[in-house]
Amino acid sequence: MADLYTPAWHAARRRRAMQAAPPSHAGLRHISVPNDCSRAAPPPRAPREPGRNSMNHRGPQLKFFINGRFLSQKLTGVQRYAAEMVKAIDVLLASEQIPTSLRNADWQLLKPADASEELDLDRIKIRAVGRLHGHAWDQIDLARAAAGGRLISLANSGPVFHRDHIVVLHDAQVFRRPDFFNWRYLTVHRTMGRMLARHASIATVSGFSRKELADVLNLSASRIPVFPNSAEHFAATKPDPGILARLGVQPQKFFLFVGSKTKNKNLSVAIRAIQLLDRADVPLVIVGGDNSKVFQDNSGEGASGLVLAGRLTDSEIAALYAHASAFVFPSLYEGFGVPPLEAMIFGCPVIASRADAVVETCGDGAAYFDAMDAEALKQLMLERLAIGVISDQERRRQQDRLALYSWKKSAKTLLDHLAVPANVASAA
């Protein structure tokens, strides 16, 4: 079939296509621009302010929640630790002696509605949440209220499924010494410990406890930070010497035991030692409550040479520390060992067992015996009576030990840990 389009038509079509096409740089000569006509470089962009995103708004505020369940529990060493750590954190926040990345964070202490204890805090807001009690409050009410922030639990327990949680476990006693506990307590706390190890970050209070927890929970010890205990809170306590007359004891004529009557405290060995000493004028004063519902009984009630003082105020205990021949600490197992440090504050000689955590805490500031050797303890008691009041050298060693531990140091270590970039990001 003949071509219906003439050569002139094709030529016109090519011209129209070239006119419609975008200009090509091919074949163009390079035209140089004089220096004085060159385009000025844009000014450098100002650095972005920390904590602001590309829209020049503040980034999300960091949120930290503290588990306040300890305020609803009876005061023991664990609850004391939690309270003192919170107060020390609050002081650091108020003075801004904290890592820069935490300075604009929101801090809240979440407590059960039935909490009976109160803390006077400046920067940490206190908020009552939920209606439940005990472990149920931890696992349901607290977990819900602390969602969206980093949760800090300082007293051995907390929500096992909170997605961003650091919890302080004070020892591995439920795993190492199951004979100390009844079956119900053992089951609950072993299960909780294992679940927290899977879902939370674990911290503890001593190098010994770090090694123990790493072993029983299959964790790396290097990933367990240590925030030690302290006894500083006792230093401001004014002794009440009237307690000596009320108990019928004489200064430097009694030995002192302070602690709950639980099996790990090994009170029975101290009782046997005082009976072996056989000095009617030098009794063993026993201060503390009885938790035999939780622990296997170790009361020693009915034995001779004992003064059962029961629960006393801090001022009364301080006076006993100040006037005792020595403080006796025969524990079979401890995560740290605070009472010996309390005794040292008041210049009281310390006779302690060789439990690993106790030796770590007391160092050369105590005399030691095997925890099951009542005869060895009796011998140290005799030696102490012969020496009399504490010597200047002994006192210096005690003061060196005390200087190692402070709530401010431990709180700062915790805040520094929270300020690690990965931990800061998780709290946002």
Automatic annotation (TrEMBL):
Tell me the InterPro entries matching this sequence. Answer: Glyco_trans_1
Annotated SUPFAM superfamilies: UDP-Glycosyltransferase/glycogen phosphorylase
* Domain annotation Glycosyl transferase family: ranges: 251-385
Keyword set for this entry? Transferase
Q: Where is this region: Disordered?
A: 16-57
- Stored Gene3D superfamilies: Glycogen Phosphorylase B
Q: What is this protein called?
A: Glycosyltransferase involved in cell wall biosynthesis
Q: Which organism is it from?
A: Bradyrhizobium yuanmingense
